[in-house]
Every structure is written in structure tokens, then in C-alpha cells.
Amino acid sequence: DQQVKQNSPSLSVQEGRISILNCDYTNSMFDYFLWYKKYPAEGPTFLISISSIKDKNEDGRFTVFLNKSAKHLSLHIVPSQPGDSAVYFCAATTYNQGGKLIFGQGTELSVKP
Amino acid sequence: NAGVTQTPKFRVLKTGQSMTLLCAQDMNHEYMYWYRQDPGMGLRLIHYSVGEGTTAKGEVPDGYNVSRLKKQNFLLGLESAAPSQTSVYFCASSYSAVTGGNTEAFFGQGTRLTVV
């Protein structure tokens, strides 16, 4: 049973526009969420995170929004750049099990010039 | 500045063979993890360790064993490889539990394993 779901396998966006990647989770015990970015033939790299006590966290062009009642989070990239083209994974964990990151299936973002 | 290093990067095994994947980190991290990535499945946690001498099961532990004899190393063993274990394996490490600032998990570049 997939506890973290990314229902869009791929997303294509024009350079300069906003990219919105979505993630849903089913386990209400999750209280910490992360986004990772992965280029081909490389390991995932950390992008941004959010605690369940917040509903928004911003870092430069990247903003993560958390809607706990809907068990939904999203990653906004503004403006999108060709170098953002990669696979994006959302992940979730609980504070008392911080070692166990549960990942979604990933969304492949393609930013076209 | 090596970070997380996985050995080997590629391997082809015959069904029933055994092998060990080595993960080494030079960041003095307490936590280490093994994940597998399959198409459409994302990354799934196999086993993890919260410190030297400790191991714990993740989401998909069956068919794998692990050991953490030294803090910097985390070994993943396949005793009798099966085609279902064909996957890309990623090791990761973090300073502590991934629930706060500066505790992100750092990943290795992956090991592509094919079992025929």
C-alpha cells in the first residue's frame, strides 16, 4: 500500500513559467516532508523540506505548501529553468521514526526553452 | 570530499548467486539507509541503521541482509539473488533523524544490479 503518492508521472512546462508538482499521503502520522531531485545516473539530492507545524516553506525559487487536512503537499518552482528538468520525489517521515523516509513514485519534470 | 560512495556501480548476477554491496560515508553520519528504485515505484527502504552495530527493517527487507560493523560502512547482502531483485540500489546517510535542519540524507550514485 503506497503511503506517499505522486499521481503524475511526468510534467512539461515552458521555461519561465511555474511548475507545480503534487504529492498525496495517507498516513496521518507523517509530520515531516521533503522533496528530493534526481538527475539521471545520479543519486537523489535534497531540495526542500517542511514540518507539519507549518503550511509553507520557501527557499529561493522553490516553495513547498502543506495542506494537512487534505494530506497533500505541493512543490512550486518559479520561474522554471531548463536545469530544473529532473525527477522529483516527495518523501515523508515521522519525528519518532526519522530514519524511515517513505518516498513517492516520482514526477519527471521537463522544462522546455 | 567523497560523501557517500557505493561499490560496485554495476553488476550482473545469475539467479542464486550471492553478493554484497558496500556503502561508505566519510561524513561521520550516524544514520545509514539502503533503498531500491524500480520503475513506477519510487525509492523503497530496504533496511536502515541508526548507529554502529544497529540495523532495522524497512519497507521491503525480504531477501536482503545488512550489517553495520563500522560507523562509516553499511553493507547490503543478497544471499541468493532472484530476478525480482533486479533494481537500482541507493545508499544514503544522515547525521541524525531526517526531521530537522541540517539532517538531510545524502545519497550515493547508485548500483545498477541485474539478476538473470
Concise summary:
The complex is a heterodimer of chains A (113) and B (116). Chain A has 113 residues and is mostly beta strands.
Explain what you see:
The complex is a heterodimer of chains A (113) and B (116). Chain A has 113 residues and is mainly beta. In chain A, 0% of the residues lie in helices and 53% in strands. Chain A is globular, with a radius of gyration of 13 Å. In chain B, the strands form two sheets. In chain B, strands 2, 4, 5, 6, 9, 10 and 11 form a seven-stranded mixed β-sheet that branches. A four-stranded antiparallel β-sheet of chain B has the order 1-3-8-7, with no helix packed on it. Chain B has strands spanning 4-7, 10-13, 19-25, 31-38, 42-49, 56-57, 65-67, 73-78, 87-94, 106-107, 111-115. Classes of the chains: A mainly beta (113), B mainly beta (116). At the A-B interface, strand 4, strand 5, strand 9 and strand 10 of A face strand 4, strand 5, strand 9 and strand 10 of B.
